Amino acid sequence: MTMAYLDPSAGRAREGRQAAAQSDMAAVTTTAAAGANPTKAEFDKVVSDLAAARTTINGLLAKLRSAGIIASS
Prior knowledge:
Layout: H1 8-14, H2 40-66
C-alpha cells in the first residue's frame, strides 16, 4: 500500500489550479510634499495611487477566494 503523501501523482491530484496572473501595481506617482501642506495636485496623486493599490489588492483577494485559499466574505 502506497501512502498518499509519498505518491507524487496523488499529491498532484490534490493540488489546486493556478488563478490568472495579477498585474503588478504600477509605480507610485507621489513624491514628498514640497512644503508643510500638500498641494491639491500632490493630494490627488496620493488618492490615485491609493485607488490603484486597492484595485490590485482586491484582484488578489478575488483570486485567492476563487482558488479556495481564503473564504468568501
